[in-house]
Design a protein that fits this description.
Length: 230
């Protein structure tokens, strides 16, 4: 399967709904770029930027970038392309999300790999399953099950709890088995910005040192979405 073709096909379909389209830009600063319980920046801060095009058909196409630190040499930048469809209503029933992601790494293209995903949301609960047949560019399969609960609190606070599990041939071959990660935290809307503080743990997968650390940690994030509403 060629993920680039999937994304191109989605972009062509999007043209039919361009009249009712929207583009949003989301800059974010985080104290550590955490990906499924594993630091992608050797415990250092990251500056991230996402751009998403969507229309009323439910189609969306997005680009996302962040600095990374995998040790000496390249890559230093990750750039991802996402395309998918959403449909349904999470407040009155179920909402669904299906799509594909191409993870790319500037200067280290042999790390590039695709994922497909399918998710469901009902009110406060979201679950999503990701699958790659070429995880990390190593021709080994891997999957990730993500579950997240978001609970509104007074004064524009929210409680966010997450649990995930990584499994598949990649993890069995290279680490002996899969692993759990989890996090719990709060977010606070402050005007046009959202501030998040969370405790994250991926230590079910042992690691040493700062690079690809799975040590438990406290993460701080600040983000906003443009254009700002009037």
């Amino acid at each position: 399967m060629n993920t680039s073709r999937i994304l191109l096909a989605g972009a062509l379909l999007a043209a039919t709904g361009a009249a009712q389209a929207a583009v949003t830009v989301t800059p974010t600063v985080v104290s550590d770029y955490d990906f499924r319980g594993i630091s992608q920046t050797a415990k250092d801060p990251a500056l991230q930027l996402g751009v998403t095009y969507s229309n009323d058909s439910g189609f969306y196409l997005g680009g996302w970038g962040s600095n990374v630190n995998f040790g000496s040499g390249d890559p230093k930048v990750e750039l991802d392309i996402t395309s998918g469809f959403t449909f349904g209503d999470a407040k009155e029933g179920f909402a669904y999300d299906v799509g594909a992601v191409e993870y790319t790494y500037v200067g280290k293209s042999d790390f590039n790999y695709p994922e497909i995903y399918a998710g469901v949301t009902r009110d406060w609960f979201n679950a999503k399953l990701f699958y790659s047949w070429d995880f990390g560019g190593l021709s080994q399969s891997a999957w990730y099950l993500s579950t997240t609960g978001t609970f509104p609190l007074p004064s524009d606070f929210s409680l966010v709890a997450h649990a995930g599990y990584s499994g598949g041939d990649y993890w069995d071959t290279n680490y002996g088995n899969g692993y759990f990660d989890w996090s719990v935290g709060v977010t606070k809307a402050l005007g046009k910005f959202t501030v998040g503080l969370s405790f994250v743990d991926g230590s079910d997968l042992p690691s040493s040192g700062k690079v690809f650390s799975t040590d438990s940690k406290v993460l701080l994030s600040i983000s906003t979405t443009l254009p700002w509403a009037e």
